[in-house]
Amino acid sequence: MKLLPIGKLCILSVRRVTSRTREYWSNGPPNDCFKMLNFLQLLAGNIQFVEHWWSKDFYWIFKILLLYAYVVTIIKTVFEFIVMPGSLVSIWCGLMTLAFTRCLINGYLLQRYNPLVKDVLDYVSKKPPHSERLRFRSKVLMIIQIMLTIVFINQIIMLIPSEQRDRWFSFPSLSSVIGHKLEAILFFVYTATLSIIGGLKYWSCAATVTTMVMGLKVELTILVQEYEDILRNVQTGYNVALGDRMAFLNDLTADIYDIFRKHQEITEKTKLIRPLLEAGFFVLYYCFLLAVGSLLYVVMEGGISASSSIIALGGVGGLIECYWWTSMVDSMQETNEKFGDCNFELLANLGCDVHHRSEISKLRNNLMIFWINTCTAQPIKCMGMVSISVLSVVNLVNNSYSMLTFLIEMGSKRNVN
Hints:
- It comes from Aedes albopictus.
- This is Odorant receptor.
- This protein is about 80% helix and about 0% strand.
- It contains 13 helices and two strands; from the N terminus they run ααααααααααααββα.
- It has a two-stranded antiparallel sheet.
- A hairpin with a 3-residue loop joins strand 1 (about 380) and strand 2.
- It is elongated.
């Protein structure tokens, strides 16, 4: 039996992807966070990040599977809300549709801000070796590996046959239309790719934001260390340079202005990623504002099983992800505020010199301006509403608990009736 042209095309595409995957991993798994991030973006179908070394075969395979999973999920959701509105399965289907919608929004955000993301990643990745940068790369590499591990573990759990899995993930029977055998094949494809397709798309945005924010925070940390080195040397240098204070002030001014220039570069790169940070956290926060309490309710009412563990992990993982985003932003802002402390100490240690009063006064004025700019930085908010801070996670937990108690109360009333 001859294969259809589209079947041949799919087989050739899979073979090309397999051969190039084998070539890519020929020297072992990626040992650099930026290379691993490219690998994750490729698996997630974000081809705009890796088009310079991979073909678009995998991209179209991923898009077809993502579209298939999304359409099946929507059909299942509509069917459940028509047949059994208010049931656990209908709530779960609504949450799945919400999760897939967020995955698509994440992909759109990465595509829309692709030039800005590439600019920031190039800035961070091309810096010379430093102990802080090496620690940052090692940490981000570990985080991305954990993300990939979670995705593939979830997919393995999804393949375990169980009554709960069939209950949560089966779609309306189509055997009368397409036959039982084809229906079984479609269900297997759905469950065998659901976690990988959705999970990779889900984590790709978080991994990209993590790499950019942590990378810029490391650059700020290194700059603060350079500033502190100047502070440690300024008093000693000022006393030693009694005979040539003008040369000392010129060197000090040059070092300080170099700090100003580098800080301005980092500030400009931070402004580039603000739109992605704000939009990404907005989608994350309000999706899990609706989802966390509902996910926990589905697990509590539906019973414990391998499939329900994935559902529970989704709810808890959402809270952890929100906390991770806010902690990164808070840490970056705290590091930026350290420049104010350095400015204060430098102003206190400059002293007074009647022979070079104008030079010292000019340097003091510039330090005051720099101090004001670093201490009055605008907080990062998601679409101008909720500040990206740990306090927003506390509000999310409170609202999720309120949602959970509301669903439990409504469920008890329905059981009584």
